[in-house]
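Thread title: Can someone regenerate the structure for this chain?

I was given the following input by a collaborator and told the matching structure tokens would be attached. They weren't. Posting the sequence so someone can regenerate them.
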Amino acid sequence: MPSATAIVAGASFADDVPDPIRGFLQVPSSDDWARAAAADLPTLLVDHANCELKAASTALSLMHRYPGNAALTYRMSRLAREELRHFEQVQKIMLQREWRMRPLSASGYAAGLRSEVARQEPDRLVDTLIVGALIEARSCERFALVAPYLPDDLAIFYRGLLASEARHFEQYLQLAEQAARAVIRPRVDALREVEQHLINVPVTAAELRFHSGPPKDA
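Best answer:
Regenerated them for you:
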């Protein structure tokens, strides 16, 4: 696996990225991703809407899988509702521009992270929650990164999502710590290394997604 720091040499976090997110992710996304994503707004918005639906689905799945975990089900219920509101907001923006939802392949980012999740409990739950924290943290970072390249109304919208994504990240991480009842740093470090690789592997223009790497020809 190539070094993530080598892939994004010279890159830095966007100014609006909250400090806890910077510290958790450690490696920023390539600015080339933001420029390419902003150049194809219909695809960015479709994929963003899909991501919000998947985030809500993940939260509901955790509620079904761990019904006896009151803290988790309460947090996930609220999170699912918020993700669905975000989906509705993205869909409204798309309709205003006369863009429609369409089939769109996933980037493989989330699947790549989830393939690393342990099979046995309680490690399975802990890993799943850490993966959730990584995805929410990276979403927050990418909202901040792409905003300066967007039309004013979209830039305002994306910056307005930063607080909720940062809150979701913190909630996932807190739940992971509670579920483990032990130090989770070794698993955070291991899964973060995988995430840093996945988010910075160059892709073709047709494969560019909200959580993909930068374009190969950048």
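The two ends are 21 Å apart (CA to CA).
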